[in-house]
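The pair is quoted verbatim below.
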Amino acid sequence: MSTPENGSEPNNSSDLIGKKVFFLFPTISVQNRIVTALIQQEYEVYVAKNKEKLKRILSKHTDSIVFIDINEQMSEGEWDIWVTGILEAPDMKGVSIGVVTTNDDEQIMRKYLLALKVPCGYTVVGHDIEKAITQIMAALQNVNAKGRRKYLRAIMERGETSTTINLPVNGNFVNGIIRDISVVGVSCTIEGNPEIPKNTLFKNIQIRLQTNLLKVEGILFGSRSDGTETIYVILFTQRVDPDIRAKIRTYIQHTLQQKMGPDLD
């Protein structure tokens, strides 16, 4: 796949692969509406429930973005200390903070915007959730959260068997193992390493992403050798249903969250 792998490059490549976006202590509403909306816009989003573990992650990924809910878990004074600690820490000087909360207190808002000067703004989540989403997306664009990356992808661990592909080759359906996936395509191995001409159109591809079975259409973009196996790169056609693409994005975020999970929970 042509998109860069997420989560393994050094931080100075974020202009290429984008930045990690964390929501610390988000409410269920924020998770269900705002986080979900950002995932569908191809942002690399994580939910964090442990502020100390998140600090350790931020010291590794120093250009990350963190949205906090100051109504959750800590008092106003404790939040002030936590935010100031992030903003003043030498090893986290590139971290951008924003506030996403139902708290519309003008004095508190001015403190974060004018005194603490959080780079990603203060978003009040009220009845107009779409307005909040628009405001957050504008903040993410201002800090170049996506970089030059267009699509997120999930990379499977070696030995992963719950993410598979089934497609017709020479009149028979054959099974394969997905190596990585994005909304634009997959790379995979196929049983028997069959010879498949470039640009072959597959009209009935079945992809299993853990418990989800998805049907897509794709074209063989190319292949390459990887030891004793052949890696096939298949690009989806424009006829893939938007609902299928939404499910793929959700799966990718779930996979990235799982890999980061022990460091966030």
